[in-house]
Amino acid sequence: MEFRDAREEDLPAILETLTDAFSEDPFLTWFVRGGARARDGLRDFFAFMVACEPRQAQWFEVSQNCEA
Fold it and tell me: Do 22 and 32 form a contact (C-beta atoms < 8 A)?
């Protein structure tokens, strides 16, 4: 699997990947919002966290389809 620096247009896929990866995490789903809206809460949480990342630092690397 090859990786590259994430780009601005990758943000929706990055958020989906992170949301999927942590959708069963007991603490995070409780922390952000439990129940039926847990996925929405997780996505909002990760959107906030990713938005805090300075773009020039290129902290995120992604696979071709952002699945990793």
Answer: no
Label residues 54-67 b or e (16+ Cβ within 10 Å = b): eeeeeebebeeebe
Which of 19, 22, 26 is closest to 40 using CA atoms?
19
**Nearest Cα to Cα of residue 9 among 60, 44, 45, 49:** 60
Neighbours of 46 (CB within 10 A): 21
Q: Which residues contact 38 (CB under 8 A, 6 or more apart)?
A: 23, 29, 32
pLDDT at 64: 82
pTM exceeds 0.85 for this model: no
